[in-house]
Amino acid sequence: MSDPQTGHETLGRTKRSKSTVLQRNRDPKLGLKVTLGFIIAVIFILPIIWMLFVSIKPNGFSTTEPLEWFLPPYTFQNYTDIMFGSLIFRWLLNSVVVALITTVLTLLITSLAAFAISQMKFRYKNFIFIFFLLGLMIPGEATIIPLYEVAKSLGLIDTYAGLILPMIASPMGVIILKSFFDNVPKEVVESAIIDGCSYFKLFYKIVLPLAKPALSAIGIFTFIGSWNNFLWPYLSIMSETLYTLPVGLPVFNATYSQAYVQPMTANAIASIPVIIAFLIFEKQIVKGISFTGIKG
């Protein structure tokens, strides 16, 4: 039988060793880092809080004291006036539709192109991949004029198709997915082909499910890029009913250049869905950002 006293001594030594390791690994500057991080977080979130408080002030409210923006009176009448008395809601819907369709089409096209370059055998495959790499060296602004001429000749100006189709080409997405598909074990691919699996089934049932982290990262950044895109919608859309938020908000704010409340209410309406989406998909967004920094 084991001695109880010896067992207690062993347990005590184990606890002391664990506490020693924790003390040794404890960052002496942890408190300073937490405090600094908290201060930076407050600095970043303060403009959002100020925007929300200004948006619930009575229309025409003005003050010379910054603190009064956070004090009563409050009203939500501005939200109903802008939602039903302007095109903000239509612009919000346009942004959602364009960003979602652009993201889905981009994921579909880039994944198919990356799979073909990675797993299929055909002539000039390496040249095509180099062509995609060269596409990263050309700034988007340099292609605006020829892109506009092509869209005009195809009748895509001032249409939803004109907003979406030019944005679905993503050389970076093809490169990321191609690198990811290259890491799929060759034994798995070869055994599937020997068993009679077609390239489409190989893509849909084997390769694509393994690429979910890469697809999530590309989808997140494609959606954000489409949501924030200003230059191309500004050039290609003439009708106010087809504006997206990045184009419509400056137009709306220009009519209230001397006021605070109405523009802030419009910006709050545009920002609240994005904030809610970030809170819901925070883990996926963080994983997508971290994934882009990991090789393979």
TrEMBL record:
Stored Pfam families: BPD_transp_1
Which protein family is it in? Answer: Belongs to the binding-protein-dependent transport system permease family.
Q: How does this protein lie in the membrane?
A: Multi-pass membrane protein
Keywords for the protein's UniProt record, in alphabetical order: Cell membrane, Membrane, Transmembrane, Transmembrane helix, Transport
PANTHER family reported for this sequence: ABC TRANSPORTER PERMEASE PROTEIN MG189-RELATED, ABC TRANSPORTER PERMEASE PROTEIN MG189-RELATED-RELATED
Subcellular localization, as worded in the UniProt entry? Cell membrane
Q: Name one GO biological process term.
A: transmembrane transport
Q: Which residues form the ABC transmembrane type-1 domain?
A: 92-281
Q: What's any one GO cellular component for it?
A: plasma membrane
Q: Which InterPro entries match?
A: MetI-like, MetI-like_sf
Which residues lie in coiled coils? none
What's this protein's name?
Carbohydrate ABC transporter permease
Residue spans crossing the bilayer:
34-56, 91-115, 127-148, 160-181, 202-224, 264-281
Start and end residues of each stretch annotated as Disordered: 1-22
